[in-house]
Amino acid sequence: MNAIGFPVLSTLIFFPLLGALFIAFIPAERPKTIAQVAFGVALVDFLLSLVVVFNFDPTKATFQFVESRPWITMFDMPVITYKLGVDGISLWLIPLTTLLTAVGILFSWGSITQRVKEYYILMLVLCTAMLGVFTALDVFLFYIFWEAVLIPMYFLIGIWGGERRLYATIKFVLYTMAGSALMLAAIIYLALGMMDQTRGLTFDLLAWYQVFIPPRVQLLAFLAFALAFAIKVPLFPFHTWLPDAHVEAPTAGSVILAGVLLKMGTYGFLRLAMPLFPVAVKEVAPVIAGLAIVGILYGAAVAFAQRDIKSLIAYSSVSHLGFVMLGLFALNAEGMSGGILQMVNHGLSTGALFLLVGMIYDRRHTRLMKDYGGLWRVMPVYAALFLVVALASLGLPGLNGFVGEFLILLGAFQANPWWAVFATFGVVLAAVYMLWLFGNVFFGPITNPENEQLPDLNRREVLVLVPLVALIVLIGVAPNLFLAPMQPSVEALVDHVTRAAMAMR
Amino acid sequence: MTTEALLWTTLLLPLAGVVLNIAVGRSLSRRAVGWLASGAVGAAFLVGLVAVGRLLALPAEERVYLTPPLYTWAVAGGFEVPVQLLFDQLSALMVLVVTGVGFLIHVYSIGYMAGEPADYDFRRYFVYLNLFIFSMLLLVLGANFVLLYVGWELVGLCSYLLISFWYTDPQNAAAGRKAFVVNRVGDFAFALGIFLIWSVFGSVVYQDVFEAAHSVAPAVLTAITLLLFVGCTGKSAQLPLYVWLPDAMAGPTPVSALIHAATMVTAGVYLIARASPLFDAATTTSAVVAWVGVLTALFAATIALVQVDIKRMLAYSTISQLGYMFLGVGVGAYTAAIFHLLTHAFFKALLFLGAGSVMHAMEHGAHHTGEHVNPQDMRLMGGLWSRARWTGMTFLVGAAALAGLPLTSGFFSKDEILAGAFLSGRTLLYGVGALTALLTAFYSFRQFFLVFAGEPRSEAARHAEESPPVMLVPLGVLAVLALGAGLVLGWPPEQGLIHGWLEPAFEVAPKAEGAANPLTLLLVSSVIALAGAGLAYLAYVQRTIDVVALSARFQPLYRLLWNKYYVDELYGLLFVRPFFALARFLADVVDKLVIDGAVNGVATVTAGVHALARRLQTGYVRAYALSMVLGALLVLAYLTYLAQ
Question: Within a domain: residue A40?
Fold first, then answer.
């Protein structure tokens, strides 16, 4: 079952939780120790995620490092199993989660001064919940982790957020919960409906994969799942919670929100909606692709109109996640590989962008573009790093964003050339709003005397950004390192969807 | 070293320059920084020469070398991109132009940028410049469309960074952004072209695609090539996407010489020459290319007639000359087009560096007198011949080559393009091209006379000073090339060295029966060039033609040209302002009021219902549990009902 000899996934998931418990016993008067311990825990967890990456067999399409224990049994039958596993689709989301948690915590050293203890506990709990989502192979377990993510994020925004934090966090939680409520109903309905074929009530995802669900049920269940996932992604027009949450969240919260939480939505499509309801997926794909394309163009245009840097980046996420969704629903290996890679890419580049904005916010306490200008001269290191990240975000070849977008568009072109025509125009708009942002902040004369004396990045801040920038370049130059391990799983999924849909004809 | 190693070395040397100057440049003197960057490019040139020697040792038809893949960039589904280089007659020539001219311009820059106040900016400049050379080499050496595209966008990045190099002026920043965005519009089509290539051929590797070109329907090839060509109109500044290039003159002048004249902007010509098997088979596209080219040539030349900014005039001239190259590839005269690309690289780099030297001289003069003058305004110049003799002499060579005066390099290459148009049987193309040649000769000498002849028209010009040797030596080298390259490489017509080198790389275009003798055309070209130069002499030196009176007489036409046909204003009205307005509307109305309004509306209604429902909140857990079960059952019942 396990190549390493110990339950690596459980360790990975629950180590941050243990760390949080440990921090609970450190007196609150020692905020420095707390922050250091939290970072240490996150760092160890990141290293653990690397153990997963380096022991992953890239030639297999099946789940690896699988752990399975009955959790709730009924009549000696395991109903809910504690089942974990990783395949090529979830592989890169795991180190992405641990890395962004670690850099988020390291960043927070400089900006979180209130209720330090609670803050780091919540960050670590959040990490556990997110890792659970990406590794759970039992639908019920998945749902638990899925909802558990909301709790720490609710507090992170609500306590350490900006002025409108309460509005933002309640909107975020209610909106996403409204979506998941329907999904829960659908999950229970499906489990009951499958009982004949699964020989007893079970939520084991791998058992569900074996069941053929009648097309009419597929469509309804798909819609219930899709709503939950689409809100999380967010797919146009379910996106309006995002700018509010992003703008109000503390920096590390934005990083995790954009970098990881949004990926839970796209991952949900990949892990649940697509394999379980292939017929429905095939049927609905044009609609979703259409919404994705609208999101790409709409998100880009609205991003351009923003005056607040954070909300510009938030809307750029709507555009970028539109690309991801388009790639997934191209339903071919090129588009899907691109989409999955782009999930990671977006996590890195948008995560880095939010960190960069946080750094300047900590200095000037404003996020409005008009308060800046000419910063290149006073903060050259900051400017150079910002430039690389901005270029990655606008899809410059040689950096990571290009690879994902190119494959997505290539895949979309196979599915329907017109999708690619409209979506590719989003690449033009990305250049418009990103260079607009960059120019407004770094070019021009310094108009505000307060900006004259800004200190450039300190060593810790550089350390926060370096791993992200290094990965941005590495994925851009040698994307195959990242694409190759996901190929077997992607091809299996594409195959599964195509064959199920063909069988219906 | 193996040929393979030579090629990778050539490509990676400039990148090493980038890395070194970022890593240790801070602790180096300016001289060291500049020479490190220049040395990297110079070394790349030498290594490239050795590699060309390897090609020369092979028989003419076998001069194609494909490196084994260094690694596989990406594999996804059936899509695969190997990282490998293609070295043939075409890319070999491009490598030598890019690194050769690039080296001279690096050296010149050491002098030109010496006045930069901050060491950091001096270093930043050379980092960009080296990065550009690397990207351009990747563009011309890459053995598939994706690598070409990577280089293609990276040179665009360098262009953006260098145009807005002096970023504290918002105008420069805007010019850089305009260049990048307009290029992206072209790249949008280019990318679609690559997607189409892949879905038709199942590969993006040149060899696979070109070998299968004959078996593909002409309509598909037309679509592919048209998409690629739209990309070219962006990068190579052709109608209708040329608008970024005049503004790009905001960058330092050596950059204008290297990127916006000699190398990057010719990438589109290279692309079509590289993909000639596709374009040859798509006759519709070839006709479009030829017409867009010749009309751009004419259009830009008419604007150049009235420019008073020394660099902007050269920018329009570049657009016009690129138009000639597209005319060449459009009529199948690939060798002629690449020949002109080569000579243009020499004489236009020379003219830009000369203009830089003139500006340098004017700035010195202005510094001396304490005047605030625009050093690029030709109306304030005049009489510089005696103040900056070397600059003047080399500039004269450049102007003569641009004008196509007999025996200069531009004379041979431009004539061959016109001959190609004529011999293809499309005399109208030839006619427009010849008319443009007349205008070219006129504006070229108009510029020379305005700058160097007559009396100084400002105090700054009176006190102008010649530039230092580090700038003059590259001018001299380029002047020799601009003067002699045509005769050495292009004589006798159709049978010179350049033809022997390049022709095996292309399929030769069919020639019309009973066509005129090329020598006759050469004679016509000579007369045209001399006539244009003569008219400029009469107008700006002898003053027997009163240009002021002429412009007053044809006031509407003059205003149209002076305002560059109002194209920028038109694009502003058609695209830029509507986009601004649309974005505002979407953000403020659609997003805030409609979409988010609906979401909040649902929330408000729910809250209202909650107020009623609050009476149900008894605080008894068992009551809640009951209602939850009831609720879930209701949903289940509903789903069951729907599913049946």
Answer: yes
Is A1's pLDDT higher than 50? no
- Residue B547 banded pLDDT, cuts 50, 70, 90: confident
Please provide the DSSP assignment of A453-464 as one string: T-----HHHHHH
Structural domain for A85, as ranges: 8-504
Residue B217 CB: number of other CB atoms within 10 A?
10
Q: How far is A223 from chain B (nearest CA, A)?
A: 12
pTM: 0.94
> Which of A281, A170, A263, A171 lies closest to A221, judged by CA?
A281
Give the distance from residue A15's alpha carbon to the nearest chain B alpha carbon, in angstroms: 34
- Is the model's pLDDT at B191 over the cut of 70? yes
Find, in chain B, the residue whose alpha carbon is nearest to that of A474: B73
Predicted complex ipTM: 0.94
Other Cβ atoms closer than 10 A to B581 = 11
- Supply A393's token pair: 């975000």
Cα–Cα distance measured from residue B617 to residue B158, given in angstroms and rounded to the nearest whole number: 65
Residue B63 DSSP SS3: coil
The answer to the question of residue A2 being in a domain is no
Peptide bond into B518 cis (omega under 30): no
Best residue in A413, A422, A469 for a mutation probing chain B (most B CBs within 10 Å) = A413
Residue B330 pLDDT level (bands cut at 50, 70, 90): very high
Say which of B79, B583, B595 has its CB closest to residue A410. Answer: B79
Burial A125-149 (b: 16+ CB within 10 A, else e): bbbbbbbbbbbbbbbbbbbebbbbb
**Whole-angstrom Cα distance, residue B93 to residue B91?**
5
CA pair distance B99, B46, nearest whole angstrom: 9
SS3 B309: strand
Peptide bond into B492 cis (omega under 30): yes
Domain segments of chain B: what residues? 326-562, 569-643
B433 vs A391, A412, B269, CA distance in Å? 40, 42, 17
Is the model's pLDDT at B616 over the cut of 70? no
Which candidate from A305, A338, A397 shows the least CB-CB separation from B587? Answer: A305
Cross-strand pairs, A80: A72
Cα distance between residue A351 and residue A254, in whole Å: 8
How many domains are contained in chain A?
Answer: 1
Residue B127 C-alpha, separation from nearest chain A C-alpha, in angstroms:
12
Helical spans, DSSP H, in B407-517: 409-423, 427-452, 459-462, 469-490, 497-502
Reported residue count of chain A is 505
Structure tokens at A272: 């649940």
